[in-house]
């Protein structure tokens, strides 16, 4: 591994996030956008409002994206981040249009998508929604997840880049009433088009409204090498097997 890559991975482990530039070329970004723009927008996995266009279960809805995402650079990065097998456990597309008023408050990504509800020690709370079952797993499972956010547009504070609290992933799950105690020192995650932001789910992060006319289109992927206990399955695994 080159020294620059080692430094990036050290930043990711220390701070809970890092940015890897030039994972995708301009032509690769255009090819991914072409697949997304041709997608139908009906069904429970699609949500479109004035401030947001989102697609859940992205690769099940748009399987043609798979070969475009897994280029050599992305594959090598994923192998450096997690031991095999690297299971895809969540895939979402977010489009924050120009001038969007969409704001996401400070939070950690504590819930994971699973195939069913099962009474297991350390798993909970649970919620059941039309799109499926979600649960907060024990800390070891959250610490074993790596989020890779593929940026299809250049992103900074002007078009709603994520803000993060460096090192907050080391605190475990932070109660909602205590989050404000940790948000005095934050970083804006600027990512160029074709870059990938790495993030740990326990890293505190937020998204402010867009201030200018540029879109912010992101493919959000979460991976884990963990198998869930007692026959419980990641929802993405179950969907691909059905």
Features:
14 strands; four-stranded antiparallel sheet; seven-stranded antiparallel sheet; 242 residues; Jelly Rolls; alpha+beta; 23% helix
Describe this structure in words.
With 242 residues, this protein is an alpha+beta fold. The chain contains seven helices and 14 strands. The chain has a seven-stranded antiparallel β-sheet.
Q: Could you give the order of the helices and strands?
A: HEHEEHHHEEEEEHEEEEEEH
Separate helix tally? 7
On the 0 to 100 scale, the average pLDDT is 91
User: Sheet bearing the most strands, described?
Assistant: 7 strands, antiparallel
Please identify, by name, the CATH architecture: Sandwich
Side by side, the strands of the main sheet go 1-12-9-14-4-3-2
CATH class descriptor name: Mainly Beta
The protein's oligomeric status is single chain
The CATH homology group name: q2cbj1_9rhob like domain
- Rg, Cα atoms, Å: 17 Å
**Shape, principal axes of CA atoms:** globular
Q: How many beta strands in the DSSP annotation? A: 14
Number of domains: 1
User: How far is the first residue's CA from the last residue's CA?
Assistant: 38 Å
Structural class designation? alpha+beta
Percentage of residues in DSSP E strands = 25-35%
Helix proportion of residues, in percent? 10-25%
What's the helix and strand layout?
Layout: H1 3-15, E1 17-20, H2 26-37, E2 46-48, E3 53-55, H3 58-61, H4 65-69, H5 72-81, E4 87-96, E5 104-107, E6 112-114, E7 126-129, E8 132-135, H6 139-143, E9 145-151, E10 162-164, E11 187-188, E12 196-199, E13 205-207, E14 216-224, H7 235-241
Antiparallel strand pairs: 1-12, 2-3, 3-4, 4-14, 5-13, 6-8, 7-8, 9-12, 9-14, 10-11, 10-13
